[in-house]
Amino acid sequence: MTTQTHPAAARLRAEHDELMQAQAELGRARRAFLDAPSGETREQFSNTLTEFAEHLQEHFEEEEDGGILQATSEHSQRVSAEVDRLRAEHEAMRGEMRVLSSDLRSRLEDPAQVAVVGHALDELLHHLGDHERAENRLVLDAYWDDSGSGD
Ligand SMILES: [Fe+2]
Ligand SMILES: [Fe+2]
């Protein structure tokens, strides 16, 4: 099927797989810190979260600039409103990441703030999950007509 072979779609799939692995690693670092808070596990969680935010930022840029958001909107006018919506979600999640990352290390030393950070992270990951699923659907929508589905 066209969706399987389109370079932008193949790249999206590989990147989403990588992001899921990074998210799993973040989950492990978070659990290690919550199960046994110490200078070491705090540092590890903080570093992993910072790396995850950087990874996400690069992923968004890749999708916007020559990646799936640019490719699908150039390919099919029909999906342009959805592409705009997904771009706006990138902006919203960039804002969430900025809030999450600010003073992260010192906030993780305060149990009340640890809960706030945890809640903000859950929100971000929830939004990200919805967003990534919508992108996978976008690819199907944008390229489906090319694959001979109309016959
Ligand atoms: Fe995205
Ligand atoms: Fe994505």
Overall residue-averaged pLDDT value? 91
Q: What radius of gyration results from the CA coordinates?
A: 18 Å
Major sheet summary line: none
Total beta strand runs: 0
Structural class: mainly alpha
Q: What is bound: which ligands?
A: fe (ii) ion
Q: What is the beta-strand fraction?
A: under 5%
Our count of domains comes out at: 1
Q: For the record, give the distance between the C-alpha atoms at the N and C termini, rounded to a whole number.
A: 14 Å
Oligomerization state of this entry? Answer: single chain
| H/I helix tally | 7
3D shape: elongated
Helix content: over 70%
Order of helices and strands: HHHHHHH
Low-confidence stretches: none
